[in-house]
Design brief:
The complex is a heterodimer of chains A (255) and B (520).
Chain A (H helix, E strand, L loop, with lengths): L5 E10 L2 E11 L4 E5 L6 H8 L7 E6 L2 E2 L5 H6 L1 E5 L10 H5 L1 H5 L4 H14 L16 H13 L5 E5 L7 H17 L3 E5 L3 H7 L2 E6 L2 E6 L1 H7 L3 H21 L2
Parallel strand pairs in A: 3-8, 3-9, 6-7, 7-8
Antiparallel strand pairs in A: 1-2, 1-4, 4-5, 9-10
Helix pairs in contact in A: 5-6
Chain B lengths: L2 H41 L1 H16 L2 H23 L8 H25 L3 H9 L4 H31 L12 H10 L2 H31 L2 H23 L7 E6 L2 H16 L4 E7 L1 H9 L5 E5 H8 L8 H16 L2 E9 L2 E6 H7 L4 H7 L4 E5 L6 H10 L5 E5 L1 H10 L4 E5 L3 H5 L2 E3 L11 E6 L7 H7 L8 H12 L7 H17 L1
Parallel strand pairs in B: 1-2, 6-7, 6-8
Antiparallel strand pairs in B: 3-10, 4-10, 5-8, 5-9
Classes of the chains: A alpha/beta (255), B alpha/beta (520).
């Protein structure tokens, strides 16, 4: 593919007098796993939602696979992009299988192809096939988010947007789901942009970390390089946090 | 089964059929209006407040008033339509009832739908956008299915309200289960009143239960329950309305009656004669005094009985009293000129407003005339029917005798007589042909200044029927044929507490008495 998969140029978003994003520029190439990190109110979720048109920028320009998001039909764009978020938002009136198969159905896939795809996806996200007929309410939190990931992957997108996808899960489930997803990313050759406030998660999963603060990009690069080169105290504090945490853990557990 | 109950059951297919047809139409129309409105309101907070406020405002208008208000409104629209297109429509009966009930059903559906949609989990809506639904797909596949239980709860409330309020369409000329209640209240036929209330309550309960099934089905996502409930509603409504299909085409003649016993009896008397001649007749009963004449003038009624004094003051707006004959001939020419209405003639008795007192009380206070009454009035309570105090006759009497009462209270005519007996009123505005005057031994006060105009009962025929031979031949024999004693006896047979006759039976007895008189 020529050019970046995602391109933001001077993207700006304001809510009244408050500027959430200030002329942000960003390029993401196909195959990258990018983590967007920053404190609350840093603009990371706004940036993510601009990529699939859930939020429109006030100024600037956003392209996905060479297409201007502003001129694309928003629903057509979103059917090509997987979207996963913390609250999952499974449709409570549909079964697990119907939830997973929703985007293929909107795209008009035939029934056999969609059904086969549901089975494939259940295997892919490591869910037993029996859950297909269940209602979302009958699943555990971790299972629900696995369904959320399967639903996002259903129409075979190459780009996945994830908004604190594992933030509400218990630590063990979170760890398991995180590494499972990273494996999927590699296996399916996806491009992933993930918002997280958990630096450890960002360092463990992503190839590239983009640090946002006060609506601007403060730092952008591979985790190790950022820690080595960045002089911004805010960035250093953020990046050193997981390291400090790991050191303290080792010390207390006597490892 | 008691004869009163049997008579009530006989009327059930017709009353129930109309009641259900009216309620179902109003509810469907209400859904058609409120659903899109609710969806628009749930999208726009700026629209939401005024829409909900307006619907709540409509709800605060008493249902009877709402029904009554649509009549003059539709009459005006119909007149405009006649002027522009040459085609009018009936402003009486089904249409005003339908519109008023529709407005009534809007609020619960509107409010529940707005609450249902705006209260949905934002995460689910974000997911709907995220998976690539168009706004329409989001509405139809996510928002409406998830809000369905809430919407159905609103439909249930609306159904119960509509079925209850539909009983109030009787006074604007629409047959409904309210006919039992209004006619029963008037003739003190409590079996009829209770029958009407029970029938309306049963219809409301059945509809509520079936809609409840649909609601539960929607909430628990059980298609079987939804289909079962809907099928039950369809079958029930279909069965209730089936008798209407058997009624054939529209009635040939429409006979009207105002809302008291004498009017029911006379309507039955005229209808019986027309039916004997092979015509089909429909009755529009319990009409308000002002509604009846306007309906006749507009051609929605073919015939009804009114009283010369009422027409003289209320329709022609006259305040003078030139005497009985002059009023009659004046009316005959004026109504013909104004509305093409034919005054066929007087039935032979008067039903005048008359001030009546209990004999013992009148003697005790030394009152025999309105002049005597005026002296004592500041210490007395006046009991009237609901419209008397706003009628020109009252103004005329009040001015002529300078009547000032301590207090005045309004009643349904039936309860007015009760109040006089019970001492809650000292003097009442009675009707001179009322059987209860003789039965209760009341004293009618003299009117030396002739302030109360004459009230000859006259048959009025609409312009379009003024040349109808069959109608005129059937009704002409009634002119001058009913003396006041006969009318009083007929009225009393319907109004008395024990051994009540139905208006139709009283009409038959009156017919028999006339036949006996003729052969004498």
């Amino acid at each position: 593919m020529k050019g970046p998969l995602i391109l933001l140029e001077r993207a700006t978003k304001r809510y009244g007098p408050h500027t959430v994003l200030e002329a942000v520029g960003l390029k993401v190439d196909a195959g990258e796993f990018v983590a967007l990190v920053g404190g609350s109110g840093s603009g990371k979720t706004t940036l993510l939602k601009m990529i699939n048109g859930l939020i429109q920028p006030d100024e600037g320009r956003i392209e996905v696979a060479g297409e201007d998001v502003a001129s694309a039909k928003p629903y057509a764009l979103r059917r090509r992009i997987g979207y996963v978020f913390q609250e999952v938002g499974l449709f409570p009136h549909l079964s697990v299988a119907e939830n997973i198969g929703i985007t293929p159905r909107l795209l008009g896939w035939d029934k056999a192809r969609a059904a086969a795809r549901v089975d494939t996806l259940l295997d892919l996200v490591a869910l037993p096939r029996e859950v297909a007929a269940r209602a979302p309410a009958a699943l555990s939190g971790g299972q629900r988010q696995r369904v959320g990931v399967a639903r996002a992957l259903a129409a075979e997108p190459t780009l996945m947007l994830m908004d604190e996808p594992f933030g509400a899960l218990d630590p063990l489930t979170r760890d398991a789901l995180g590494s499972d997803y990273r494996a999927l990313h590699d296996r399916l050759q996806l491009t992933t942009v993930m918002v997280t406030h958990d630096m450890a998660e960002a360092v463990l999963l992503a190839d590239r970390i983009v640090v946002l603060g006060q609506g601007r990009i403060l730092a952008d690069g591979p985790p190790a390089a950022l820690l080595r080169d960045s002089s911004d105290p805010q960035v250093r504090a953020l990046l050193e946090a997981p390291k400090r945490q790991a050191a303290r853990l080792n010390e207390r557990l006597g490892a | 089964m008691s004869p009163a109950l049997a008579a009530a059951f006989e009327l059930l297919p017709d009353y129930l059929g109309w009641h259900v047809l009216l309620s179902v139409s109003a509810l469907l129309l209400g859904l058609l209006i409120s659903l899109p409105l609710a969806i628009a309101a749930s999208r726009s907070p700026r629209l939401r407040w005024p829409v909900l406020a307006l619907a709540s405002l409509i709800q605060t208008v008493p249902s009877l008033a709402l029904l009554a208000l649509f009549y003059p409104l539709l009459l005006a629209v119909s007149a405009l339509s006649t002027a522009w297109t040459g085609h009018g429509f009936s402003a009486l009966g089904f249409l005003p009832s339908l519109l008023a009930l529709t407005l009534y059903s809007v609020l619960p559906i509107l409010r529940n739908t707005v609450t249902g949609i705006t209260g949905l989990d934002p995460a689910v809506l974000q997911a709907a956008d995220g998976v690539g639904m168009t706004p329409r797909q989001r509405l139809l596949q996510v928002e409406l299915p998830l809000a369905a239980p809430m919407i159905m709860a609103g439909v249930r409330t609306a159904a119960v309200w509509t079925i209850g309020a539909a009983t109030l369409s009787t006074p604007v000329g629409q047959t409904s289960l309210g006919n039992y209640i209004f006619a029963g209240l008037q003739t003190e036929n409590w079996v009829s009143v209770l029958f009407g209330c029970a029938a309306a309550a049963i219809v409301a309960m059945v509809a509520d239960q079936l809609l409840g099934l649909v609601e539960t089905g929607a909430r628990m996502r059980r298609r079987g329950l939804v289909i079962g409930g809907l099928a039950g509603l369809l079958v029930g409504a279909g069965a209730a309305m089936a008798p209407l299909a058997g009624l054939g085409g529209p009635a040939t003649y429409v006979v009207g009656a105002k809302n008291f016993s004498e009017q029911y009896i006379l309507a039955e008397l005229m209808a019986g004669r027309l039916e004997q001649g092979g015509a089909t007749v429909s009755r529009k009963e319990d009409l308000g005094s002002a509604v009846a004449y306007r309906a006749l003038a507009a051609g929605e009624l073919d015939v009804y009985v009114d009283y010369s004094g009422t027409l003289w003051t209320a329709v022609l707006g006259r305040t003078d009293n030139p005497g009985r004959q002059a009023v009659l001939s004046g009316l005959t020419t004026e109504l013909k000129r104004r509305d093409g209405v034919l005054v066929l003639g007087s039935l032979g008795f008067e039903n005048a407003y008359a001030f009546a007192m209990r004999a013992d009380r009148a003697r005790e206070l030394g009152i025999a005339s309105l002049e005597d009454l005026a002296r004592q009035a500041p210490r007395l309570t006046l009991g009237t029917d609901i419209e008397f105090l706003s009628r020109p006759e009252w103004t005329s009497v009040e001015t002529a005798y300078k009547l000032r009462f301590k207090a005045s209270r309004s009643f349904q005519p039936t309860f007015m007589y009760r109040a006089l007996q019970g001492g809650e009123a000292d003097v009442i505005s009675a009707f001179s042909s009322d059987g209860r005057i003789a039965a209760d031994r009341l004293v009618v006060l003299a009117d030396p200044q002739a302030a109360i105009p004459p009230y000859d009962a006259v048959i009025l025929i609409s312009a379009k029927r003024a040349g109808d031979r069959r109608l005129l031949d059937a009704l002409r024999p009634l002119v001058g044929a009913i003396p006041v004693e006969a009318m009083r006896a007929a009225n009393y047979s319907v109004d008395r507490d024990a051994g009540k006759a139905t208006p139709a039976q009283a009409a038959q007895a009156l017919e028999a008495a006339m036949a006996a008189e003729a052969t004498k």
